[in-house]
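TICKET #2291
ISSUE: user wants both folds in one file
ATTACHMENT 1:
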Amino acid sequence: MGAVASRSKWFAAVLILRKLMHREIIHENYVDAMRCLVYNSQHGGMLMGKREELIELKNKSGMNWKQFSEYYEIPYRTIQDWEHGKREMPDYVLRLMQYKMKMEELLKMGGNDDRK
């Protein structure tokens, strides 16, 4: 029961941090650091790796793996290899994928900008 209660407190803390981040009170890097701590506490001391971040990014997108690979224009087999840990995804690719998704979210929230 203690471990479950502890995880619940971590999740609550992360949710609060996310709300503060959306209000631009704190920087998103702080929330990312807290998310890693939550993952670390749940998985026996392992920090979230690129594979787990890829899976989380895909889940957040609401796409299946095929759609996800087409969206990012990355071969489906490559995505599968990264997902299953057969190949290691380069750091810069993961960061670019996260950046693209974040920018798409911001565009959806902010509407269209008529500047050219």
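ATTACHMENT 2:
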Amino acid sequence: MGYLPFEPRQANLLFQLIARRYETKSVILTTNKSFGQWAEIFGGDTAVASAILDRLLHHATVVNIRGHSYRLKDRQNALGLTAGGAATVPQNGSQGRKSRARGGDAVKTTG
């Protein structure tokens, strides 16, 4: 959750699903958004975000995983990035040019 915001109808349907499963079934969600950012996920609707979080967190075990993205790591390995972040990336059959990665930034070079 969090890549694209929910439309109001989608947010309502998710709330109904969570409400029906509340205290009867397990739910596992993954997101890269903190709880304080959930209103953004639901189009700024703090009431829906609060209601969903209230039900999800009541009996929850929250696992907060911090670290580097495996997808980003795999992409950096595919591009041949070194620990310093420098790589030569070929461009449309050309010789390529140097690119530099910073922190969690994705590397994209255009010709």
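RESOLUTION: both attachments delivered.
EXTRA DETAIL ON ATTACHMENT 2: The longest strand covers residues 86-89.
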